[in-house]
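User: Structure tokens for both sequences below?

Assistant:
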Amino acid sequence: MIQRSNLLQVFCLGLSVVTYAQTIDASALPAVDTVLQHDFPTQPTALASLTESLFQEYTRTGNTAALVFYSYGMLQQAQYFVSVNDVIHASEYAKTGFFYLDEAVEGNEDEPRIRYLRARMDAYLPAELGRCVITLADTELLLKAQWDRDLTAHINAMRYRALQHCRKDEQARQFLAQLKTMEPTGNDSPAWDGEEVTNIILPLVKGH
């Protein structure tokens, strides 16, 4: 079972996606569009309803962005259960969220954007959850692909944190020394920036 203290750290990271004004086909993916335009709701019933709609949307369309957002929604619900001290349900929902996030990657091995979204979340989780091993594998593959400077910097930051969390301290120091320009990040997940929304999230929403 995931410990309550670990869950509290997980859900202080801000798992939701930033609001973005660029138009998508809302008629095809209304639940995904709701997340992009308005974020996940904080009211538990509304959150549960939207999360279920995301899964139904994935089932109906096969759009992987809907599955990724469903996993985020499950993690947001786990956050709610943490807030009411229901650690059993919090652990169950968190495990489900991680399961479907992994499913999204494993079912789309040739789509690096989905792998990026998993690394983006996992890199900023508490080390005790053990997701650093996954992040190291993801970032190794991601760094072999072509990205712009800003996205490459994000991937490098994820990899550096994963090396730290996996207690590969010497490798982390060497990696940071090689990069030279990268500043060590804090414990909180940075806000999604325009490059990530434009080049990672929206192409997945649009199915390309």
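Moving on to the next sequence.
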Amino acid sequence: MEWVVYLLLALPLLVSAGLAVLLVLLLLACHASVLAGMWLVAATSLLQTVTGNAPVLHLGLALFPGDLMSLVLAPVAALRLLQQSHRCRGAWGWWVFSAAVFVSLGTGLLSFGTTAGVQARDYVHFVLVGTYLLSFEYDEQLVARLCRVLGGLVLALVLLTFYRWIVYYTPIPSLLPPGGVYNIDGAMRVVWSNDALLMGLVLIGLTFFTELTAPARRPWVSVMVLLAMVLLLQHRSVWMAVLVGATGPLIAGGQASAAMKRLALFAGVFLLILAPVFLSERSAGLASELQSRTSSALSAQGSASDRLQGWTAMMTKWAQGGPQVLALGNSFGTPNTRFIVSSEGEMRKVDYFAHNMYVQTLFNTGLAGISGFLALLWTLLAGLRKEAADPRLAAECRMLFVFVLMIAVYLIPYGVHHVQGLVIGAGILCARAAERQTLPGRRGARHAG
């Protein structure tokens, strides 16, 4: 049994060597194929949801799943852009926004240390994923690959959601997380809002762009399941994004009559799913909760009121910061402290994220960062809508137009997430390819394979 002792002694070295080999293989795969990078991003998102975004590695600093993903994608993106520097041209809003994020991060690290890195983490992951995608050329399969990756990720999230609902409502105490709930803001909210948004994106894709997302089968069962889940997860911001996505095809270019037919079908499925919730006695509690959340959102009460006050306070703090802060913002790491008046009339001190990507971006990157991002959204949406007239890319441009529009709406109460970088990056590449009319054929498109 002496060999067992030697094996145990060598085990840490074997594990380290295995991780090193895995890292090299990931680097090579992501450099060679955009699909590998997309699956890495999707796997990272799923791991974050499953673990509650807990640290997965401690090397003096706590490394989270997104940090490990960035350690792979950052050098790959940098190397590819150095090899093909012409791909940096265009999308100037993206580069201005990205530069503003890293400038704020750099000054924040000097002033506040690792606190700046913690605050900037989601921005950095989002920028790196988008930049990684921009290091590839567009080809005919890019959007199809994106649909496959988003579909696979959403399928895993749906299964995870069902599992957590079963565990919570059965209940099975031994499988519940510490505290007995997955989300203190609501028992039904067993996954995060960005996960629900991904379900919403796939829902809209299956409803209005079947030729891209499900060309060989009828997707209406999946549509009904996803619509029910989006409703039951009760993320009001996702409801608004899905509503915008459902009407988006009407302004995305192309045939409005076809979009109207799909919209009517979508409304019918919506009513078919929602009616039992409000008519069944067993689901009276759920119906009451849905009504309560909807009415509070429309009347700007509860969390909506808190957020509005917080946005005003943070914008006031930014406006009083002087010329440098106006231009470049408060460095990441700067406290988000602000005071709000609760519905009971009590003054409360809060210091969490602004619950608005645009306000937070203005606060941390100033006019430079927010101008770059808004310019990106404007030119991207305009470009995708314009190029929807190209018969080769009409469906792809329309779908990405709607997806980007949904993300833009979702960012009003929430922040960026790295999976959104895939959609933004694909949108930029698609609009650029249609504009330049240089779409490579299937045989010649090796760069994104």
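User: Anything stand out in the second?

Assistant: Strands lie at 57-58, 62-63, 338-341, 347-350.
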